[in-house]
Amino acid sequence: MGGNEPGRDIDGLAAVAQAALLRRIEASGAWAADPGWREAFAAVPRHLFVPYYYVGVAGGYERRWGESADPAARERWLRGAYEDTPLATRLRDGELLSSSSQPSLMADMLAALEVEDGHTVLEIGAGTGYNAALLAHRLGDDKVTTVDLDPEITESARRHLAAAGYHPVVVTGDGARGVPERAPFDRIIATCALGGVPRAWVAQSRPGGRILMPLATGLILLTVTGAGHAEGRFLHTPAYFVPLRGAGRPGGEPIQLGGVPHRAREDDLFRFLLALTRGSLDPQEAHALWEQEGRPQRERYGITVDEEAEWAWLDDPEGPYAWPLPS
Questions:
Q1: For the whole prediction, is pTM greater than 0.85?
Q2: Which residues are catalytic?
Q3: Strand ranges across the sheet with 121-124
């Protein structure tokens, strides 16, 4: 893909760029547990879901647009659409409202769901529609529901999905409340960050169902074990997502780190613990625990949800280290 040929056919450029993206995701090992997702990523053209996006530049953002009159600008847009990176797709007053997630992280998350033919899936956070298209390709349109609070986002997701030939159910509503009229679900996946596990998701999951969601800069994978009860551990990977807007939106003042050594302040795993224990441990207590327990990886932490409470824990849900989460 030489930069001196900006007028080349879009479909040809897209095929080359998509093939390179597939190689990068494959090299990451994301499909090792479930190679079936490779076919979905090969079939769904990402550029149809990001007709424009924003790239950070000095002083703000630069808009890249597939309909630019400049052939070189169109090629930059297309190349960027197939980079293994998140893309900012909707801004308001400088605040990021929606994005297309990093494809290799999406691949990790989809593989972790362990979907099977016939499963029904609820996606929280419609975004561009790209993730819903991957799910629809794998499971079928009628098995996939995606929800978002913003009608502009759901409308554009519908357009993108239709352009790519997919027609899952797209709902405008508060994702924290789920979509009860389409329940029960075998799998629920959230592509936006929350501060706790919405009880509606547990209630709308079948026994044995899985819920995968970003929380505290990580990804928690819960198994629903009965009415109102779910439990699971965090995946190893860090994850940073746009917050959910609506009833489940995370909040709180910035954490003050006075007295915490600089090395810990900059450590991703310590900052994960800080986010997970916000409101339960002060930073100095969190740092003492982190050092005492050998700077734990994310996989040592988990979450339990029952009908009365939900809590995070280290190593054992009944062990000495447990912290309440907001319901």
A1: yes
A2: 98
A3: 169-172, 144-148, 121-124, 185-190, 205-215, 218-226, 229-234, 301-305, 310-314, 322-324
